[in-house]
Amino acid sequence: MRIGLYPGTFDPITLGHTDIIRRASALVDKLVIGVAINRDKGPLFSLEERVAMLEAECTKLSEQTGTQIVVHPFENLLINCAHDVGAQIIVRGLRAVADFEYEYQMVGMNRVLDSSVETVFLMAEARHQAIASKLVKEIARLDGDVSNFVTPLVQQELLKRLGKA
């Protein structure tokens, strides 16, 4: 069974993330969505809330793609998380050149730690390339419309969290 790992903080999950999940599902038999705890980033949503939103969105995606998709929180090294879930492939989404520079370094480090785990990059679709969770949160905080960037469920949760629902 080919297992892929798509890691991120998903604070919150955006349409860019779901685009990558949908497309990565075609490459593997099972896709694990690794939700990084990453306390240093100071997420807006708790780990439990991010996992719940991802599980809701991934249930739909799994039904559409026919690929098993599971959500797995982690706080260790990415390569160790890959080992924990049996992943042979790490999936990373790219939006711009700046993403590539960071990801290039990460791949190099992960290859030194374990060269048997491959990293696959998927470019975000053009309509999703500008979407970033950080910007979505800022738009919502400033009373902007985020419906073009997240699903209705995530928009509702975001507005509720910001006291705007």
List the helices and strands and how they pair.
Elements (H helix, E strand, L loop, with lengths): L2 E6 L6 H11 L4 E7 L10 H19 L2 E7 L3 H8 L3 E6 L2 H17 L4 E6 L9 H9 L10 H10 L4
Parallel strand pairs: 1-2, 1-4, 2-3, 4-5
List descriptors.
alpha/beta; 5 strands; 45% helix; single chain; Rossmann fold; 19% strand; five-stranded parallel sheet; 165 residues
- Which percent range describes the beta-strand content? 15-25%
Mean residue pLDDT: 93
Shape: globular
Query: Uncertain runs with pLDDT below 50, 5 residues or more?
Result: none
Write the H/E string, N to C.
EHEHEHEHEHH
CATH class equals Alpha Beta
CATH topology: Rossmann fold
| Strands in their spatial order, largest beta sheet | 3-2-1-4-5
Instruction: Report, as a whole number of angstroms, the end-to-end distance.
Output: 43 Å
Short description:
By secondary structure, this protein is an alpha/beta fold.
Report on the structure:
Helix 1 crosses helix 2. Helix content is 45%, strand content 19%. Helix 2 links the parallel strand 2 and strand 3. It has a single domain, classed as HUPs (Rossmann fold, 3-Layer(aba) Sandwich), CATH 3.40.50. The protein has 165 residues and is α/β, with parallel strands linked by helices. The protein starts with a strand and ends with a helix. The longest helix is centred in the middle third of the chain and has 19 residues.
